[in-house]
Each structure stands twice: as C-alpha cells, then as structure tokens.
Design a protein that fits this description.
The chain has seven helices and 15 strands. By secondary structure, it is α/β, with parallel strands linked by helices. Strand 8, helix 4 and strand 9 form a beta-alpha-beta unit. The radius of gyration is 20 Å and the shape is globular. It binds ribose-5-phosphate.
C-alpha cells in the first residue's frame, strides 16, 4: 500500500496509479502544542511504501511518524520513497563545526525502513549515508514530456557541468537536439551567480535549460540573461525539483523564460509532469 506524507499527495497518487497499489488513508493533524500527528485511518498491507518529500523539518518528522505507524499497523516490509530529499545539498561539512546534515537525516530515515528510493539527489553519493539499501532514481527523461514538439534547432543546456548528464537524458528523451553546459560560479557571501558561456551558437535557437533543482532561481535567471543577450529564441526552464523558494518564480519570469516545467517531487504550480513512473520502475 502507498502511504503518503502531506507534502507528496499528488506524487503518491500517481505512484499508486503507476504500480496498481492502493493508497492508504492518512490524516495529518497537530496537537495543541503544535507537534505533528500523522494517523493512518485505513491501512492493511504487508508492504508499505511510505512517500514523503522532506521539504521542511515538519515533513521530516511526519515521514518518521508514518514509518512508525505502518509498522504498528503490521507492515512487515517498509520502502521509503523520498521524491525530494531535503538537506541533501549539505553533504559535507563546509566549515569547521558544521554537521553533515544529509548524513544525519539519512540515518534517521534509515531507522524506520528496509529500503530507500530517492529521485535525483544532488549527488548520488548521499545514498551511501543511509544505513539500509538506498538507490537514486533518475527522472530527467520525464522533463521532455511537456516540451513543445516544434522546438527550433534545440540546444539542451545545463547551467553547470554537474547537470550535463541530466540535460543529455532529457535531450535523448526528446529525441533530437545539441547538448552543452555553462560553467557556474557562486559567491556564497552575496548569493550572486555568474555563468561562463560555452561557445555554443544560440542565436535564433530554442534552448532548454535543465538542472536538478531550481532553488533561489539565481542560477537559471543568470543563464537566461546570458542566452537572451546572445539572441536565443525561446528559453525553457526545466528541473526535476521545482523548489522555487522565495522570489525565484518572479526572477525567472522577469528574466524572460518562455515556460517553466518541473516534476511533482516538489508539488508546485509548474509541476507539469510526474516523476512517479520513474520510481515505479524501481519498486
Ligand atoms: C547546484 O549545483 C544545483 O545543481 C543547482 O544549480 C542549484 O542548487 C540551483 O540553485 P539556485 O536556484 O539557488 O541558483
């Protein structure tokens, strides 16, 4: 049975659909002091698939509660799906005294499950932090689905080298187009992002930007600015995880993006395609 956290209800429904499993009934409530209380109100299965994007500290706690609740309800096997794994980008201590937060949360999640699947973690190495078998799931091919079929001489471009494999996967799923990447630098004091353009010709071409996540939107906005200066035709922003924190959406619109497409690993208005079928292949 699929058991959904409050942050991943659309994803969980799509996963139930893709796997033919039933969706458990869950109520999300709070005690008067603000503590969370997730309760299974209709659950009966040996294998529980607990699904929750840990987009907040509350979502982390809720996931742990649901893992515990399914065991209480008799599940003999628990698989945990993290459509989006929060804290995954804190995968090392960047300065003395910092925790490796990804490891801390991975250990906590591992205590309540037999196996973990997580969609496009920032680095697949975070899977090693779990103390149970954990696998990354690549959903980048899904990003090709909402793209128009009439792309003109398309270029699939990642705003940094680390995401070029995702851009390649999206391009391959679309079926045609060139591939390139920008070199990115971020000033962590100011938050400013600069990208060093490749020498790819973009004038008059449709460009599909592909990244794992849009968080503040600074990376994509900078890439759009550069592409606009170089007379690109349409610029589509695509990402697996549309976090779109704070004013990110406004930044992208002001930069002049043609459209933004993300998956439902983080449920936002731009989540036009589901990553659930990619996860279903691993269940
Ligand atoms: C970084 O390497 C990631 O792939 C993304 O490019 C980055 O996290 C995006 O962040 P933001 O939207 O804040 O620029």
């Amino acid at each position: 049975m699929i058991v959904s956290g409050s942050t991943s209800q659309a994803f969980a429904a799509a996963l139930a659909d893709a796997t033919g499993r039933d969706l458990a009934a869950v109520e999300y409530d709070r005690f008067p002091d603000g503590e969370l209380q997730a309760t299974l109100t209709d659950y009966a299965a040996d294998h529980a698939v607990v699904v929750g994007s840990t987009v907040s500290s509350d979502a982390h706690v809720e996931l742990l509660q649901l893992q515990d609740a399914v065991r209480e309800a008799g599940a003999a096997e628990v698989t945990t799906v993290l459509p989006y794994m929060g804290y995954a980008r804190q995968d090392r201590a960047f300065t003395e005294g910092e925790p490796v937060s990804a490891r801390a949360v991975a250990r906590a999640v591992s205590t309540g499950t037999d196996r973990v699947l997580t969609v496009n973690p920032h680095e697949t190495a975070v899977c090693d932090f779990f103390t149970v078998p954990a696998e990354p799931v690549d959903a980048a091919a899904r990003l090709a689905e909402p793209l128009p079929g009439d792309l003109s001489d398309p270029l699939f471009l990642s705003p940094d080298e680390g995401a070029v494999d995702l851009a390649a996967t999206t391009r391959d799923a679309h079926g045609r187009g060139d591939l390139d990447y920008f070199e990115k630098e971020r000033d962590y004091d100011t938050g400013t992002v600069t990208v060093e353009p490749s020498d790819a010709a973009v004038a008059g071409r449709d460009v599909v930007l592909v990244d794992d996540i849009v968080a503040t939107g600074s990376t994509m906005a900078e890439a759009i600015d550069v592409l606009t200066d170089r007379d690109a035709a349409r610029v589509f922003v695509t990402c697996v995880h549309p976090m779109l924190a704070a004013d990110a959406r406004t930044k992208l619109e002001r930069a002049g993006t043609t459209a933004i497409f993300g998956t439902d690993t983080i449920e936002r208005p731009v989540s036009t395609v589901s990553a659930a079928p990619s996860v279903a292949e691993h269940l």
